[in-house]
């Protein structure tokens, strides 16, 4: 994949220049300095010599094949250069220049032309508006980044060229090194999806690290990321998640990033370790590159002082991981091998008397114990502390089964060098909190990797009925469905709907009520009245014929008075729902990631407390249950606080049915069941109100 | 304050030793190496010479006065050494040894003896179980920490000796330096309160930085910290805040730390910048030491790349600060001075063409503009970036009125040294997120410093009535008050209570109901029934005499059947409350910090969503309103979502009345009004149910 981009045998630079400061100079100089072994062909109409190489006036003049063409000319000259590359049957083109889509209309036109040339010519295009590509394995620096990082384990990609450089710097500083680095710029052809696929299969890459602001194709991205995560950890910082961040991103990429909740759901599905900060990106990548994934969340803390013990225990528990009490056998073993001044507990505080051999012994004991999933070593500088010898002792006892990570508190001059630590394979952090952040990311990745097989249930449904309703509505351009029609659709997908009928006379309303049984509710049906309750358009719990007649008449009177021009489709007479817990199930179709399911408890839980969870469709039973569990108000579903336990499985089924409906019908743009009334176990949930919106038919050409 | 501890003219070391590795050796060696100018007197029964100094066999033999005595002998010999110091009329003693309170009963006895000796002798005691004290201004290293840090602006104190060393290391690494450092150990005499007072008045200390696990005297701490914060920023990391952290702290200090909510409320009151991690401690201290406090939360971001612009804007907004749009005049000025490729927006992305002079110009413009409160500069490495020159340009344009902080992304080798940055007074962070964390801490400190004058209102109340009830209950040891008596007390403090009376007959219940007016509620009064609703002991909304009689009889029947042994004080007949919003007001008396007020919306908001806020009493009107505003459900109080706007002022008054009540009567241990029903503006809130607990009288000697 992208073989001729990442591992070209020969490279041409169109726009190679002798003027220092120009990109065409930097690129040539970088290619030559990095020590790339194959031919590097400068091309410039001016001809002559450059860095002791003959300059070709046009690419066609060069007799042998060219794999990669770096185009280092201004935007307006790029299409012509691309044509040259196509004629030469190059495998890939890197366009460095800015001034394309991100610069407005004129730039967008040039970019479209460039894409067309490459597509027709069968040449892959990186950029434009990008830094280029680096492959340390073959000393390739086809970028205008001054330095080529040391060879190593991180496969880096970035939508920002400047951050790509920063990431390579940090990889170097942390002594992890880089396998490949690629700046994807405007992503006119090659996107994060291609890069994920390439790095997933790249043997030199142990961890993929990326910076993204938007995603080109949500569906492809999720699939590619899921495959990549199965092979190796993928850590991504997604920026542009706030209003201000989105504004900033849009201003220099020309793309709106979309909703962060959708990205969150997509990353979770794909097993991506999501970094919340630039530091976290490397904090996580370091641990994931150097250590095995933990089997669970139980952390043994080993330290040499009370203060660091306390602080580290806080950090682990605050991160939602566990600091288990020692089992008696573990306690006994540790006591035998640690000095008498040690506090044998978790954290294990070996005390100021800690010698390197004590750490080694504690690690050996913990690694062999089934109740410990990871080890956090926190060293505080004390009079007798020997940091360097301690590190040697620790790394000599590292193990492939349990991750060990460390935090050494204090200044770097008394601590062993990062180089020594990284070379020894011990991830190292300036604070316990950051070390724990990395442990947590590893743990979550482990949980994802060992997730149960995804089995999406398909329920028997009346798909044709829904098809018919949608077609009819789309053709008459009535795209917003009210309660009655929405319920028709939901019924076809197996939801329980209360018996009811629409009528236009009070007499018939009574007849209907008698037929379905009291008590009933009356609801006005009107496409032009949005908030029907506000206009007195909903009356509940009517227990007799007289109450139905009175309510009907009053409702018509009110509406005639306050909304005389409203189109009234009639009054809906519906059996009252029994009492239960009100939940909301919704779906919005994200432009990137497709149907995104929403769940929350009704009323103020959603509206005020914003206590909702999201998940991409299609969803499994297990994932639906996870959605319920991840609300803060989950307790209420479990039947505490005076509320009876509700049928969680029934809610999960409702979510799966909506998942099936909205996956079957991409025409449904959004959908809300609010509320769905859920009863005790064994009772079907009941749809009390619902609405949905369809997409308009594409306009005819 | 603590003059003879921090700035002694002469020092003796009891237990001075020639054996390397012993504390008595380390202390002597550290004192001599640091270059302290006054006499240093080694004392050891063995006599002889040490480091070319004559060793006194006993302290009394030394003819001149001694200010500070460092006791470097094992715990059991410490009391005798302390006696020597007392006889010498020393000003302060430092006890380094462990083996006191933290080591169990025997150690506690020695510690008590030591405290008694020092108290009687009028000598201040630092420790035991501590590292000692450092004062860089006079080259004093009276500690067993190997190194004395460079002189500088941070006044450090720590309850953990190991972390004290780590903190000095970090202060050095960040080139901030240390004024004083003091390890307070077991805090047998000198506590964080003394240290806060001393450092607050220390002219060399610009920022106080502390690590604490527990606080010795909450009230004194809050007062001392408040005074200190008024003079200079105080940044504290409070550890032991989780279950695991608390367990760890208790195991090595022998002290339970208490509730984190109380610490949170106390720190807030005292203006302490609370650090959530070891790194944050120095992140905040760096900014506070080097830059002025911002006047508001509006941040101008200046950067040189789109990626860093996006990431930084995210960081500011996620922290709850603001990235304001540029005003037209600001935009115009920036456009005039920045290159054409710059994106003139906030963030200001000067683009890859950014030269040092552009940063300087942007800073000058922003500093002079009234709509900008702080400047965040984020530099991403690019081909043309000149980090060192950029830093010089930035620091040449720093200003005393607006804080400027920076984050340079990438490896340290292409970046200017920390030394250069700190010397120039520019706080510097590895990531935008951490820089923003520091900005936020500065902003919050600024808000605290400019908070309105605290005026605690005193309402006219019937204090004597409450006094009488408490006295009677305490003397009969009936310390848990039920609804009726609690309401009596609340009434005396101006709360509106619904009319009602206790009765033992159904007939009288009807009479009472007729007198106060229907509908009424019946509630069983029983000290032995805790959950009266569960036993059918509460009936609401009784609208007629017949309903009252039926409810009364049924209630007695149920209770006789299900709780035949319950002591029934009668049935309380009370007028039904009108509908309104249910809120909960509570108070728990924290053992450290005294009465802590609690507020939350009733029912699930408190019980499930844990949406509550806390504040130390006494509280001002302004602080009470802040309590309401800081709940997540505040929206509901403002009259949205179908709920009418309630009288916020009335709730604030209720909080202030409870503040007054619980400040007036330290005997009240806890109190709950649940619910208080709050109506629209102008309606008095009504206490529907309440309970409280009194302290037992101290047992007679």
UniProtKB/TrEMBL annotation, chains A, B:
Signal peptide span: none
PROSITE patterns: ATP_GRASP (PS50975)
SMART domains: CoA_binding
Domain ATP-grasp: 487-523
Entry keyword set: ATP-binding, Ligase, Nucleotide-binding
Lineage: superkingdom: Bacteria
One function term, GO molecular function aspect: acetate-CoA ligase (ADP-forming) activity
Family annotation (InterPro entries): Acyl-CoA_Synth/Transferase, ATP-grasp, ATP_grasp_subdomain_1, CoA-bd, Ligase_CoA_dom, NAD(P)-bd_dom_sf, Succ_CoA_lig_flav_dom, Succinyl-CoA_synth-like
Pfam families: ATP-grasp_5, CoA_binding_2, Ligase_CoA_2, Succ_CoA_lig
PANTHER family linked: 3-HYDROXYPROPIONATE--COA LIGASE [ADP-FORMING], ACETATE--COA LIGASE [ADP-FORMING]
Family: In the N-terminal section; belongs to the acetate CoA ligase alpha subunit family.
Protein's name in the database: Acetate--CoA ligase family protein
Lineage of origin: Bacteria, Pseudomonadati, Thermodesulfobacteriota, Desulfobulbia, Desulfobulbales
């Amino acid at each position: 994949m992208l073989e001729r981009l990442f591992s070209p045998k020969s490279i041409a630079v169109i726009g190679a220049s002798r003027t220092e400061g120009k990109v065409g100079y930097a690129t040539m100089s970088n290619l030559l300095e990095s020590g790339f072994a194959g031919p590097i062909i400068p091309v410039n109409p001016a001809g002559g010599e450059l860095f002791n190489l003959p300059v070709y006036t046009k690419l066609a003049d060069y007799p042998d094949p060219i794999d990669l063409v770096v185009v280092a000319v201004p935007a307006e000259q790029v299409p012509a250069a691309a044509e040259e590359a196509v004629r030469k049957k190059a495998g890939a083109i890197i366009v460095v220049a800015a001034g394309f889509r991100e610069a407005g209309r004129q730039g967008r036109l040039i970019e479209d032309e460039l894409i067309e040339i490459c597509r027709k010519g069968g040449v892959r295009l990186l950029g434009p508006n990008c830094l280029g590509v680096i492959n340390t394995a073959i000393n390739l620096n086809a970028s205008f980044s001054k330095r080529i990082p040391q060879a190593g384990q991180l496969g880096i990609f970035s939508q920002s060229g400047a951050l790509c450089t920063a990431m390579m710097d940090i990889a170097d500083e942390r002594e992890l090194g880089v396998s490949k680095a690629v700046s994807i710029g405007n992503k006119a052809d090659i996107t994060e999806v291609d890069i994920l696929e390439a790095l997933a299969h790249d043997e030199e890459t142990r961890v993929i690290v990326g910076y993204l602001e938007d995603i080109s194709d949500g569906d492809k991205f999720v699939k590619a990321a899921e495959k990549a995560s199965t092979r190796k950890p993928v850590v991504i910082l997604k920026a542009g998640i706030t209003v201000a961040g989105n504004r900033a991103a849009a201003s220099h990429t020309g793309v709106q990033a979309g909703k962060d909740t959708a990205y969150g759901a997509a990353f979770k599905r794909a097993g991506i370790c999501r970094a919340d900060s630039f530091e976290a990106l490397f904090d996580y990548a370091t641990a994931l590159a150097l250590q095995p994934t933990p089997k669970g969340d139980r952390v043994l803390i080993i330290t040499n002082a009370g203060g660091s013990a306390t602080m580290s225990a806080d950090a682990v528990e605050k991160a939602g991981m566990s600091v288990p009490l020692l089992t008696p056998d573990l306690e006994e073993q540790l006591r035998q091998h640690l000095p008498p001044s040690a506090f044998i507990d978790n954290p294990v505080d070996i005390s100021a008397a800690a010698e390197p051999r004590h750490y080694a012994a504690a690690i050996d004991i913990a690694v062999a114990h089934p109740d410990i999933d990871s080890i956090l070593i926190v060293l505080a500088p004390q009079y007798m502390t020997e940091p360097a010898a301690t590190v040697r002792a620790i790394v000599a006892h590292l193990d492939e089964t349990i991750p060990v990570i460390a935090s050494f508190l204090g200044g770097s001059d008394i601590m062993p060098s990062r180089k020594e630590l990284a070379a020894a394979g011990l991830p190292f952090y300036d604070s316990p909190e950051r070390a724990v952040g990395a442990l947590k990311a590893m743990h979550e990745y482990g949980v994802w990797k060992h997730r149960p097989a995804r089995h999406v249930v398909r329920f028997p449904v009346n798909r044709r009925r829904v098809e018919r309703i949608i077609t009819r509505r789309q053709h008459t351009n009535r795209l917003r469905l009210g309660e009655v029609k929405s319920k028709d659709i939901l019924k076809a997908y197996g939801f329980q709907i209360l018996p009811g009928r629409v009528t236009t006379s009070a007499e018939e309303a009574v007849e209907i009520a008698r037929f379905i049984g009291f008590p009933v509710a009356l609801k006005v049906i009107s496409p032009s009245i949005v908030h029907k309750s506000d206009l007195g358009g909903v009356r509940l719990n009517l227990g007799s014929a007289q109450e139905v007649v009175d309510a009907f008449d009053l409702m018509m009177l009110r509406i005639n008075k306050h909304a005389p021009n409203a189109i009234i489709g009639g009054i809906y007479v519906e059996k009252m729902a029994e009492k239960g817990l009100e939940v909301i199930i919704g779906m919005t179709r994200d432009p990137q990631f497709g149907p995104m399911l929403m769940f929350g408890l009704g009323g103020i839980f959603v509206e005020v407390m914003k206590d909702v969870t999201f998940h991409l469709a299609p969803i499994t039973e297990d994932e639906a249950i996870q959605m319920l569990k991840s609300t803060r108000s989950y307790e209420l579903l479990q039947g505490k606080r005076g509320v009876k336990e509700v049928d969680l499985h029934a809610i999960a089924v409702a979510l799966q049915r909506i998942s099936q409906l909205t996956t079957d019908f991409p025409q449904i743009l959004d959908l809300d069941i609010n509320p769905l009334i859920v009863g005790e176990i064994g009772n079907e949930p009941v749809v009390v109100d619902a609405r949905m919106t369809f997409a308009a038919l594409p306009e005819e050409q």
